C-alpha cells in the first residue's frame, strides 16, 4: 500500500509539473531514491533523432560529466531497439554483455534500463546503475520502474509541448509587435486569429494534465482492485474530472463573451444576485476548507446589469481567491454603495501579488503560477474584465505579497 501510494503521489506531482527542466530533476531524484540507484541517466531523443543525455547525476546530487562514456551503449541500444526494459544483476558476468568493452572498462554491476514511451512514441530511456552492489536490482523492481517510466514519459511529452507552445507564443508576440507598427488595423485581425489558435493549442495541452492523473488513478485501481483505502484514488479521479469541467466552463464563457453583439441589461436587486452567488459558492466549495463570508447591505441596491454574467464575474473572483489562499484561509465578499456606484468586493488573506504583476493579471492566458502547477488557463480574471467592459464598469485590485488581495467590481448605480 505504501509503494502504491507513493507511486500515485509521484505520478500526480509529475502530471502537475509542466516546466520541463524541473520535471526532469524531479524524475531523476525520485528514481534514484525509490530504486536505490547509485547513478542515473535520463536520455532523450532530440529534434534530429539523436540521443541527448539531458540529465546525469549520482545519488549525492553530483553531476556526472561525459555521461556518454559512463554507460553501456550495448544495454541502452537493446532497450531502445526492443522498447522493453533490461535488467542485469551483474553486467560484467552477464553472458549477453560481459564482452562489451564499456562493461569491462566501467566494471558495471547492477544495471536496469527502461524505455520512456508516451502514446506509442519512444522518447528515450531511464538508465539506473549501481557499480558497487551486484544483484541490487531484481525482477521485483522491473514492473514498478516501468510503471514509473510510463508516467514520466507522458509528463515529459506534455512538458515538451508546453515549452514549444510558450516559445511559439513568445516568438509570435514579437512578430505581432513589429507588425503593429506597420499596419495597426490589419494586425488587430491577425492578433484575434492568433489568440484563437493559441487558445485551442493551450486547451489541448492543459486537458492532458488532469487526464493523465485520471488515467493513473484508474490504472492503480485496475491493478490492485482489492486494496484498502481505494476511496483516496477515487477522490483523485473526481477532483480531476471537476477540474476539466471547470476549464470547459471557462472556455465556453470566454467564447460567448467574444461573440456577443448585444449585451442585454435589466434593473436587478443586486442583493438577490449576491444571494444566488452565495448559494452556488457554498455548493461548489464544500471541501475547500475556507472561511467564506458574505456581507449584505442594509438597503436595496438596484443597478442595470446582466444577471447571468455579473454572477459569473463574482464567482470567478471567489474562485481566484480560493486559489490564492491556503487551507483555513479567510475570504470576504461585500456589496455596498459608494457615491454613484455599486461595488462588489472580494478580499482574501492569501499570498498576494507583487505590484508589477497586477497590470498583467487581466491578460488572457496570464498565470501568476508560471510553473503551471495549479489549475486553470489564466482566463478567470480575463473573463471578469470582459464582463465589466460590457457593463461599462470597472475592476480594480489592491494587493501586496503575503497580505492578500482585494478585487472590486465597480458598477454605475
Structure characterization notes:
The protein is α+β, with helices and mostly antiparallel strands. 49% of the residues lie in helices and 20% in strands. It has 10 helices and 12 strands. It has helices spanning 2-16, 20-35, 73-82, 101-106, 139-182, 184-223, 231-259, 270-284, 307-324, 380-390; strands at 39-45, 51-58, 86-88, 110-118, 121-130, 266-269, 291-295, 302-305, 330-338, 341-348, 394-399, 405-412. It has a 5-stranded antiparallel sheet with strand order 2-1-5-4-3, sandwiched between helices. Strands 7-9-10-12-11 form a 5-stranded mixed sheet. A two-stranded antiparallel ribbon has the order 6-8. The protein is elongated.
What descriptive keywords fit this protein?
413 residues, alpha+beta, five-stranded antiparallel beta sheet, five-stranded mixed beta sheet, 10 helices, 49% helix
Can you give me a brief rundown of this structure?
The chain is α+β, with helices and mostly antiparallel strands and 413 residues long.
Q: What is the radius of gyration computed over CA atoms, rounded to a whole number of angstroms?
A: 26 Å
How many runs of DSSP E, i.e. beta strands? Answer: 12
Q: Largest beta sheet: what is the strand line-up?
A: 2-1-5-4-3
Task: Report how far the terminal alpha carbons are from each other.
Answer: 60 Å
List the quaternary state of the chains.
Answer: single chain
Sketch the major β-sheet.
Answer: 5 strands, antiparallel
Structural shape:
elongated
Structural class: alpha+beta
Low-confidence blocks of residues: none
SSE string: HHEEHEHEEHHHEHEEHEEHEE
- Beta fraction: 15-25%
Count up the helices: 10
Query: What is the average per-residue confidence, as pLDDT, rounded to a whole number?
Result: 84
**Helix proportion range:** 40-55%
Amino acid at each position: 500500500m505504501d509503494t502504491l501510494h507513493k507511486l500515485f503521489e509521484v505520478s500526480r506531482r509529475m502530471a502537475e509539473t509542466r516546466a520541463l527542466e524541473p520535471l526532469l530533476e524531479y524524475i531523476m531524484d525520485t528514481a534514484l531514491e525509490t530504486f536505490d540507484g547509485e547513478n542515473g541517466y535520463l536520455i532523450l531523443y532530440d529534434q534530429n533523432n539523436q540521443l541527448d543525455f539531458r540529465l546525469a547525476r549520482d545519488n549525492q546530487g553530483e553531476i556526472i560529466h561525459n555521461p556518454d562514456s559512463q554507460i553501456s551503449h550495448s544495454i541502452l541500444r537493446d532497450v531502445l531497439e526492443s522498447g522493453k526494459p533490461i535488467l542485469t544483476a551483474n553486467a560484467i558476468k552477464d553472458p549477453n554483455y560481459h564482452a562489451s568493452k564499456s562493461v569491462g572498462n566501467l566494471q558495471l554491476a547492477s544495471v536496469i534500463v527502461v524505455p520512456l514511451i508516451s502514446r506509442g512514441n519512444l522518447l528515450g530511456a531511464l538508465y539506473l546503475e549501481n557499480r558497487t552492489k551486484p544483484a541490487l536490482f531484481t525482477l521485483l523492481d522491473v514492473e514498478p520502474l516501468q510503471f514509473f517510466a510510463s508516467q514520466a514519459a507522458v509528463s515529459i511529452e506534455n512538458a515538451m509541448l508546453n515549452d514549444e507552445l510558450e516559445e511559439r507564443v513568445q516568438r509570435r508576440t514579437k512578430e505581432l509587435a513589429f507588425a503593429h507598427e506597420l499596419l495597426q488595423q490589419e494586425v488587430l485581425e491577425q492578433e484575434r486569429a492568433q489568440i484563437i489558435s493559441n487558445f485551442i493549442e493551450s486547451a489541448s495541452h492543459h486537458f492532458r494534465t488532469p487526464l493523465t492523473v485520471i488515467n493513473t488513478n484508474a490504472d492503480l485501481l485496475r491493478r490492485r482492485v482489492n486494496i484498502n483505502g481505494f476511496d483516496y484514488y477515487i477522490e483523485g479521479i473526481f477532483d480531476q474530472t471537476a477540474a476539466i469541467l471547470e476549464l470547459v466552463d471557462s472556455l465556453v464563457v470566454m467564447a460567448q463573451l467574444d461573440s456577443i453583439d448585444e449585451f442585454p441589461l435589466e434593473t436587478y436587486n443586486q442583493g438577490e444576485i449576491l444571494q444566488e452567488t452565495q448559494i452556488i459558492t457554498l455548493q461548489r466549495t464544500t471541501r475547500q476548507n475556507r472561511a467564506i463570508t458574505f456581507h449584505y447591505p442594509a438597503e436595496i441596491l438596484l443597478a442595470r446589469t446582466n444577471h447571468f454574467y455579473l454572477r459569473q464575474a463574482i464567482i470567478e473572483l471567489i474562485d481566484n481567491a480560493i486559489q490564492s489562499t491556503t487551507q483555513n484561509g479567510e475570504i470576504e465578499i461585500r456589496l455596498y454603495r459608494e457615491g454613484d456606484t455599486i461595488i462588489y468586493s472580494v478580499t482574501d488573506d492569501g499570498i498576494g501579488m507583487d505590484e508589477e504583476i497586477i497590470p498583467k493579471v487581466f491578460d488572457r492566458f496570464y498565470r501568476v503560477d508560471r510553473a503551471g502547477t495549479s489549475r486553470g488557463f489564466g482566463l478567470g480574471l480575463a473573463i471578469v474584465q470582459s464582463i465589466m467592459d460590457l457593463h461599462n464598469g470597472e475592476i480594480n485590485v489592491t494587493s501586496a505579497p503575503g497580505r492578500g488581495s482585494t478585487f472590486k467590481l465597480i458598477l454605475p448605480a
